[in-house]
Amino acid sequence: MKKLQNIANKRRSRFVNTALTAAWLIFLLFVWQGVTAGFHISEWMLPKPTEVWQELKSLQWMVWPNIWQTAKEVLIGLAFSIVIGAAIAVFMDMVPVFRMLVRPLLVVSQTIPIVAIAPLLIVWFGFGLQSKIIVVILICFFPLALSILEGFQTVDDDLVKLLKTMHASKWQLYRKVKFPAVLPYFFSGLKIAVTYSVMGAIIGEWLGASEGLGVMLTRATKSFMTARLFAISAVIIGLTFLLYGAVECLQRLSAPWVYRKEDHQ
């Protein structure tokens, strides 16, 4: 009975925190509206939230194709990032020498500014979808590989030894012990990768594209259309939250024991 009460209290607490966060954001919007209206700030310097909303409504006819273009780059890039990051992490876990040789290269790959590499990708792969996907992969595979590798290193050694005494194959070892144990770490890395992926797609579109939210953002900036700039930024934020929420739901479906453990703590 006490455990059920604790679970109910934790869920109620999460609901209250969510409601308070929403109320705080609404309050900030009212403050923004009041300051811009009270001090008569020009729209091109800082538009009112109502002006941003009106601009967003006026963009409906053209924003959806651009959302789809950016989402396509993000989703394909994320899919490849998961495969590449997971493969690198598995090989690093299986072969210590490979881990010793590759890990420094992974760190070095993240120290090079993506804006320095992206123009080269445009030259090599053109202005199409391929170069944008590669930018997303370069940004996203690192947190995934590192998170999965960290998860492998936290696997219970006693369980591994037990399966080895039962003559389990390497595939059985990974399927029965390592992959389930690494799921929470994988989703932690995926949440980071999701937030980076939209940014990567936008950077790729900045440097050369015919459509996408990054293209709309660049055109609005060059035209000093500040309300449109804020409206497109709001769409980008919404897309990022949508992807993050999808990952959260996927984690709840594939690793429900993590949330049950949190509820019982």
Descriptive keywords:
265 residues, mainly alpha, MetI-like fold, 2 domains, 11 helices, 87% helix, transport, MetI-like, transmembrane, cell membrane, ABC transporter, permease protein
Question: What's the SSE blueprint?
Answer:
Layout: H1 2-38, H2 49-58, H3 60-94, H4 96-111, H5 114-125, H6 129-153, H7 157-165, H8 170-207, H9 213-222, H10 226-254, H11 256-264
Helix pairs in contact: 2-10, 3-4, 3-6, 3-8, 3-9, 5-6, 5-8, 6-8, 7-8, 8-9, 8-10, 9-10, 10-11
What does this structure look like?
The chain has 265 residues and is mainly alpha-helical. It folds into two domains: 41 residues; 209 residues, MetI-like (MetI-like fold, Orthogonal Bundle). Helices cover 87% and strands 0% of the residues. α3 runs antiparallel to α4, α6 packs antiparallel against α8 and α7 packs across α8. The longest helix has 38 residues. It is flat.
Taken from the alpha-carbon principal axes, the silhouette is: flat
CATH fold assignment of the largest domain? MetI-like fold
Low-pLDDT runs: none
CATH hierarchy, class of the largest domain: Mainly Alpha
List the secondary-structure elements in sequence, H or E: HHHHHHHHHHH
Radius of gyration: 23 Å
Transmembrane segments: 74-92, 104-127, 133-152, 182-207, 227-247
Membrane topology: Multi-pass membrane protein
Protein name: ABC transporter, permease protein
Subcellular location: Cell membrane
